[in-house]
From TrEMBL:
Domain of life assignment: Bacteria
InterPro entries: Bact_Transport_Assoc (IPR052529), DUF418 (IPR007349)
The protein's name: Putative membrane protein YeiB
Organism whose genome encodes this protein: Aureibacillus halotolerans
Signal peptide bounds: none
Ranges where the DUF418 domain occurs: 191-333
């Protein structure tokens, strides 16, 4: 395999694995909303603040960006093979819509359905000039951030993913190492400033999970709304820090390699997180109370189990279970699942 292509695949899988790390810590609050009260203890209030500063909107943004990049990679590969690329991508996105629709029935905060819609709307931008896609992505992202509407950020991030693919950034990582280092330094400084400002601005009390109220229900909720909005907008500096850090580390260490298998099975693990958390909730009673700090430890355990299982699974199989079904459906044929044994 070409070394540049290998670097691209490994770096993308690693970043995708990073994104998966953070998603359950946010999604658990949707799935267990009946059992997780508004934080009251000092520990839980700080855990909630940390989730908004370091997690909420960060990993969702990375996942959205990677989805756009993935669409570009899929279309460019199909084009190189002289396949009917738009027939394949439309079928692939239709299957994703079905998976997302079913998943949405159990997890109201899920993203697959909106990704399917974004793909159908914007896969046609593949043939637009890369400069235009980059400009549309940046301006749209800033606009969505100013409005404070998280779901709207999917579309410009999707375009940024396509633009980065068009610029072949992940195939030129060695060539672009110096600019990436500068970007990492800039995002590090910006992240420190953002973290300090957000923690100063954070409400003194806990507030309802993952929602911005349009009703005037008190000073603390008003402060919470401003905090959530600013965390969503300015916190993207932290997102950039995460991504550039992972790109640089991917080229220097193998310690993060377990995350690559985790990222390669992104669809299976994302849906699997919902299944696992819902299964755990079946053991709760109507009077069960799960504190914010408890959800963190539970999600850490879930992620660790998934990382181990992903690495064991991919020693034997080529794809994760849902990835395999998605691939079979896309190409309308049964593709090999088991790895061939050498010798």
């Amino acid at each position: 395999m070409n070394s540049n292509l290998s670097d691209r695949i490994h770096s993308i899988d690693l970043i995708r694995g990073l994104a998966l790390l953070g998603l359950p810590f946010v999604n658990v609050l949707f799935l267990w909303y009946m059992f997780v009260p508004i934080p009251e203890t000092t520990l839980d209030i700080w855990v909630q603040r940390a989730l908004y500063v370091f997690v909420e909107g960060r990993f969702f943004s990375i996942f959205s960006f990677l989805f756009g990049l993935g669409i570009y990679i899929f279309l460019s590969r199909a084009e190189a093979k002289e396949s009917s690329k738009y027939t394949l991508i439309l079928l692939r996105l239709f299957i994703l819509l079905i998976i997302g629709f079913v998943h949405q029935m159990y997890n109201s905060g899920e993203a697959l359905f909106i990704y399917g819609i974004a793909g159908l709307l914007f896969c046609w931008f593949y043939h637009l000039p890369k400069q235009l896609n980059l400009w549309l992505g940046i301006t749209g992202f800033i606009g969505a951030g100013i409005l404070g509407i998280k779901i709207l950020m999917v579309f410009p991030l999707f375009l940024l993913g396509i633009a980065v693919g068009q610029y072949r950034v992940f195939e030129r990582l060695q060539e672009l190492r110096k600019p990436i280092v500068y970007l990492w330094l800039g995002s590090t400084v910006a992240s420190i400033v953002v973290i300090v400002v957000l923690l100063i601005q954070a409400p003194s009390q806990g507030f309802p999970a993952m929602s911005i109220s349009s009703e005037n229900i008190g000073v603390n909720q008003t402060a919470a709304n401003a905090f959530i909005h600013h965390a969503l907008l300015y916190g993207q500096a932290i997102t950039l820090f995460y991504v550039t850090t992972m790109i640089l580390l991917a080229q220097k260490t193998t310690l993060l390699r377990p995350l690559q298998a985790f990222g390669r099975m992104a669809l299976t693990n994302y849906v699997g997180q919902t299944v696992i958390l819902l299964f755990i909730s079946t053991f709760f009673s109507d009077t069960t109370v799960i504190q914010y700090s408890h959800t963190v430890w539970i999600c850490v355990l879930v992620v660790l189990v998934q990382i181990v299982v992903s690495n064991l699974w991919l020693r034997v199989f080529r794809y994760g279970p849902l990835e395999w079904l998605w691939r079979c459906g896309t190409y309308w044929q049964t593709v090999p699942l088991l790895k061939r044994r050498e010798g």
